[in-house]
Amino acid sequence: MPELPEIETICRGIASSLKNQKVTEVIINQPKLRWPVPKIIQAKLKNAKILNISRRSKYIILSTDKGSLIIHLGMSGQLLVLPKVHPSIKHEHVIINLECGKALSFVDPRRFGCILWTEDDVSKHKLLKTLGPEPLAKEFTGEYIIAKARTKKVAIKQFLMDSHIVCGIGNIYANEAMFLAKIHPKTPVNLINLSKAKILVKKIQQVLTRAIKHGGTTLRDYRNSEGKKGNFKEKLKIYGRKNEPCIICQSTIQHIRQNQRSTYYCPKCQTPS
DNA sequence: ACATTGACCTGGGAGC
DNA sequence: TGCTCCCAGGTCAATG
Fold it and tell me: Which residue's CA shows the smallest distance to C1' of B5?
């Protein structure tokens, strides 16, 4: 569910509550997430001090003096900062109680998310070490896209959503960026030229930055760490607008499926190469 | 090396 | 009201 802007919003939201806090207890109600929640975190995190909260791709990294938690929210996960004593929530799988009387609560109806533990350098973790660059980093350039795309024929949309090429871009923002860059989502990546690739990078960065500014996109489930919705949905120009007129040319917005994911595009503005 | 499909889950909405 | 079917913001593992 959440993409990079939503994860970034959550990280910023929980950071001030968690930083320098001591963990008093970890409660695991449901260890069966995408991968089992390691039971050892109950012992390891007891009395651990939370040092830092950061993000890599869509992973939230909670670093402590004993090791790091690697958290992914999958499609439906939420991380909430709540009072330690709070009304029970459906699908509240893991709760991390803090010395200050608050708790970090992991809620995830679909259980596609995960909570993992490492005492090693986080960037060496199996799931993180193969990730591509951050889309907002300066090494993500038009030249980088061309270099990665040269030997591939996949559709540009799938390419953008491959976290080993560039991480953090999910279905919504891939759709939005291609509309802004006027690229047809089915265009084989090896046909994208350098000037188009440069425009695409610029538009990806623009849409992600704007979404972060507006607290992310809530289609249905997404909530920030305070349980509030993001405001970027109303700013979406193409995603979810099947059969509506294109805001540029008034053509009817098309909806297709690519790899079991919804794609929206304007047949006139986004010309096939 | 690259491309495609299945798998993991629950819940909401549409249609009958 | 209740059933079935389809859809959903992710991404790894297995298969071709």
Answer: A259
Nucleotide nearest to A152 (CA to C1'): B2
Active site residue A2: yes
Concerning whether A3 is annotated as a catalytic residue, the answer is yes
Q: Give A80's strand partners.
A: A105
Phi then psi dihedrals of residue A88, to 5 deg:
-70, 145
Q: What is the pLDDT along chain A (273 residues), one digit of tens a residue?
A: 689 999 999 999 999 999 999 999 999 999 999 999 999 999 999 999 999 999 999 999 999 999 999 999 999 999 999 999 999 999 999 999 999 999 999 999 999 999 999 999 999 999 999 999 999 999 999 999 999 999 999 999 999 999 999 999 999 999 999 999 999 999 999 999 999 999 999 999 999 999 999 999 999 889 999 999 999 999 999 999 999 999 999 999 999 999 999 999 999 999 876
Q: Six-digit token pair at A179? A: 């509309």
Around Cβ A38, how many Cβ atoms within 10 Å? 15
Which pair of tokens denotes residue A271?
Answer: 């010309």
Stated pTM of the model: 0.96
Task: State how far the alpha carbon of A173 is from the alpha carbons of A15, A153, A168, A240, in Å.
Answer: 25, 21, 9, 12
